[in-house]
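Minutes, project check-in

Agenda point 3 was the complex the collaborators sent over. CS summarized: two entities, 418 residues total, and the question is how they sit relative to each other. Sequences were read into the notes so everyone works from the same version.
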Amino acid sequence: MQIDTQFDEQIMGLIASGVAGKFKKVKITRETSLQKELGMDSIGMLSLVFRFEELFGIDIAQLGIEINVAKLKTVEDLIAAARSIMSKAQVGQA
Amino acid sequence: MSRNIEDERPDAFEIVDAHCHIASEEHNPMSFVEASVANMVVALSAQGAPVSAKKLTAMFMSKMQDPLCDALVAEMDECGISKTVLLIPDFTYALKDCKLTIEESYHRHREVLQRHPGRFEVFGGIDPRWGRDSLALFERSLVEFGFRGLKLYPPCGYSPSDRSLFPYYELCAHHHVPVLLHIGPTSPVLDFNFASPFLVDDAARLFPNVNFILAHGAVSFVEECIMLCRFRPNVYLDISGFQTTLGYDPAATAVKKVVSVGINHKVMFGTDFPVFRLQGTQKDFVEAVTAENGPLAELNDREKLLVLHQNISRLLETAVSVAA
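CS then shared the predicted structure for the full assembly.
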């Protein structure tokens, strides 16, 4: 799996799929706030984590990675975290 | 020249956290955690997320590995919390899968008091149905262990105004220590019928010299809590649990509401560590409350001091001082 712009778009697609109805019209950019603009609460964030694991076939807990949901404030934060997780997953597979 | 944490925060107010627990599975039965997780599983499943209760439980329990409170002290230092009140809910009567007896739990908390002098106070929990042994243990905790309050968890199956609790309140009056009681929702393995703040009214009226703190009063039965705080001189509330609202309301409007109704001499800062560790750190939660545009922004400095530490400190200062 290449960690490239296509990967970033997949993450943005993942975020878009988890956005509640009344926030669907918000245009998602890297700067978009997950809480304030997309209305994602902690359950929404956990849902994203599970969908991410399913999409890429990884287990974050098994990788020994801790996710601090409070630090994930924007789409960019989430993409950066996803990239970091994938890098560690690929190192683990190598 | 060194700079301390107080200097680095924009508003260098002392902070006392009036509501925390030791992060260790020793003090929290798995039946309590698993039933709580069940609610999250329902919510996530409804969204079509590939959720597993086992995995969610493991995620939460991975944050419960700080039995001596070393990590908690590091987090307190990071955000200027000078002191934290550790509460011991007694689940041992209602839930039979507790790893420790309540007496063993008291001893673990005493170890933490001794390990981190000056950083913690402990409120011992009891279930009145344990009878005379429980009363003796609670008195011992005040006289011998240096505990400074009583923790009640009514959803275990009793009213805070049940007469069986009166001997405990007499002890609290004698030793000038407060009572903190859980109100509002909890793990579904327990009884929500005893979650209402009004259940404390008889006790608060009959024991005017005992101070009662309604835990989570900014997020559960808010109007009722405000009314009790406004009209019962000996009833207070803590804001712990406000983190449940931050996801959809980062401005913490729930906190803003209770500090905007003229009861700031009754409101106490609290985080309920480690319950919200998946959502953030102590620093995140302190920042959410003390941010420049946060819920305390419209308070004057005097009121901020009351909420952030003086209200709980005032109640603790009146307690009989004994060596831990």
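Noted in discussion: The mean pLDDT of chain A is 85.
Follow-up: revisit at the next meeting once the mutant set is ready.
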